[in-house]
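Example protein as discussed:

>
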Amino acid sequence: MNDLDPGTLAAIDKLLESSARSDVPGYAVGVVRAGRVLYRRATGLASIEQAVANTPGTRMRIASVTKQFTGLAVMLLVEDGKLELDQPVRAYLPELAGLNGTPTLRQLLNHTSGLRDALDSIAFFLSEGLFPQIPAGLTHQWSSRFTDANFAPGEAWCYSNYGYGLLSLVIEKASGLTLADFFQQRLFAPLGMVDSVLWPNDMELLPGLATSHIRLPDGRYRRSIYPCEELVGGGGIVSTVDDMLRWAANLREQRLGSAASWAEIQRKLRFNNGSEHNYGFGLKCQLHRGVELRWHDGSTFGSKSALLCYPTQGLDIVVLANRSDSEPGAIGIKIAELLLADVLGPPKVNAEAVGREALIGNYYSPALRRVFSIRPHQTNLLFAINATPEGVLRDEDGVLGNDSSFGPVTVHHTSSTAAIEVEICGHRETYSRLPATPPASTELEAALVGSYRLADFDTPVRIVLEQGALHIDLDSRFHPNRIALTPFSSEVFLCTVTVLGSPAQGVVTLERRDGVVVGFFFSLQRTWNLHFLRSGMR
C-alpha cells in the first residue's frame, strides 16, 4: 500500500465510505499491480446478527464470477481429450431429450444456446413468502418440459444459469469427479487458493463465510440464503479477496491451461449471422477506453462481486460485497480509472437527451413480442428492454447503442417518430411507438379476464380485475401469487413479479384470433415468450 500516493489512497477509501461503519454489511477489496499489493481493505460487518467485522480474509460469495472457473474447467477436459467444444451437450448427457440436448458446449459457455433459464421461470411460479431455496434437480426437471426456446442456438444471446448447470453435469460426467472436487484438484490447489470452495447450499455451515444481506426499503437488512443447489458451475464458489487475486493473476499469466485453450476462452463469440459479442467462457474481453480488460461481475441475493484484470497493465482488482445495495463493478471501474489515468483514452460519450426528445417513449416489436423503451435521466438517455433497465445509451458519431442483457444493441433512427429500428446481436427489427396514454385497465376487462394455462405445464392461472387494476393470479400449490399488469397499450402490458424476494419487470403480450384474446405470452429477462392458452382454446 506504500505505492499509492495519499490522494489516490483517500479516493479509493472514499468509494467505500458508506460501508465503513459498525452497523451495516460491507466490502472486501484488493488491488495488485505488477505483483505488488496496492490496496487490501475490508469494511462493514460480515454478520450484522453477530456483530462480526469483515476482513480481507472473510469468505464471500462470488456468484457469477464462478462461470470463468467453469469455462477453464471445460477447456482442461478438452486438453485431456474428454470433451469437444462443438459437440452437442447430448453427446455427453444422452439422457437430455428435446431442446436441452441440442446446443453445443461452446454455445452453453457463450450463452448462445437459446435455452430458457429455468431458475428464472421456476421463481415466477413460486409464491412470495416461500422459503427461497430451490432443491437440486428441480430446474433440470422443469427445463426439460419446455417445448420451445428463447431462440435457435447461435442466433442471439441470453444469459443462462441453466446452461452452466448443464456444463457442471458435463464436467462431472467427463472427469468422474464431483464439480467441487474437480475445482479443488485442478484449479484451486494448483493456484494456492486455499480458502476457496464450491458451496451450493447456505444451510450447510462453512467457517468464515459472511452472511448475505438484502436491504429492505425501510433501510433494515434481511438475511439471504443462496437460492439454488443447482447453481454450482454458474455461481456456487465462495472465496476471499486474496484467493481471487491469485485467480486474477492466472487470467493474466495463464498458469493453468494451454495457449490454445486461452485463445478459445478469449475469442469473441460469433453469432450465426456473423456479428460478434465480447462474451465467452464466463469472461467479458473488451477494451476499456482503449485498454484491454478481462472481467466479469456477479450478483446473487445479498452478495455481489467483480473481478477486473488489465493484462497489459498488470493490474488486478477484486471487489466483494455481502450486501444487495452494493456496486462492486462500478467501484472496480472507478479504482481502475484512478490508477490508469495516464494510459486510458477518453471516456465514451453518453447520448444527450437534448435534441432527441422525439425518441423518448416505449416501442414494441410484434415479431419479437418485445418492448424497447428510451427514457430521459438528467441530461442522458437510458434504455430498457422488456421493462428491465439496461443503462445509458452511448453516442458514437451519432449512432446510439450499448451492451445489454440481450446482447449488443444499436438504435437506428427513422424518418418518422412513430417507429425506430433496433439492432440486437446483428438482427434488425422495427419497433412501433406505443401510445403515450394507454387505455385504462377497466376498458380491457371484458377482453382479458378469464382462466388460462401455461401450455407446456398445464399450469392454471387467472387474469382478474380488482379495484380497477388487472392481475395475473397463479394457482400456486403453496398459496396464491399475484402479479400486477399495467397496460402499455391494449395489446402489451408491463408486469411486476417478485422473484425469490426481489422485484423483477417483464412484459405480457396478447395473442388474438379473429379479434378474440385466445392467450398471452409472458417474458422475463431470461425467459422469453412463455405461452399461456385461454382455457378451452387450442
Observations:
- The two ends are 68 Å apart (CA to CA).
- The domain at 60-115+150-237+252-284 is CATH 3.40.710.10 (Beta-lactamase).
- Confidence is low (pLDDT under 50) at residues 127-131.
- The chain has eleven helices and 33 strands.
